[in-house]
Design brief:
With 70 residues, the chain is an alpha/beta fold. The protein has one domain (7-66): Pyruvoyl-Dependent Histidine Decarboxylase, subunit B (Pyruvoyl-Dependent Histidine Decarboxylase, Chain B), CATH 3.50.20. Helices cover 17% and strands 17% of the residues. The chain has one helix at residues 21-32, and strands at 7-8, 38-41, 51-52, 63-66. It has a two-stranded parallel ribbon. Strands 2-4 form a two-stranded parallel sheet.
Length: 70
């Protein structure tokens, strides 16, 4: 089964950490509002007629496809 997204939102977050780069990355995800979801990285191709929406609360543990820049 192939799924084609119909909506997307853009978010960002940044952080630094004295502990580790991984800790800084985790903090940045939390600040972006996507730190409690399961992120699946995809390429940056958006399908035709996709609609940009405002960021909304995503349930903890939800599977989210994302284009992730580091």
């Amino acid at each position: 089964m192939l799924t084609v997204p119909t909506k997307f939102f853009v978010t960002s977050g940044k952080a630094v950490s004295r502990v580790s780069d991984l800790n800084a990355f985790d903090k940045a995800l939390l600040r972006a509002g996507i730190g409690e979801q399961n992120l699946v990285s995809v390429s940056s191709i958006l399908p035709p007629k996709i609609k940009q929406i405002q960021k909304r609360k995503i349930p903890m543990g939800a599977i989210m496809h994302c284009v992730l820049a580091q």
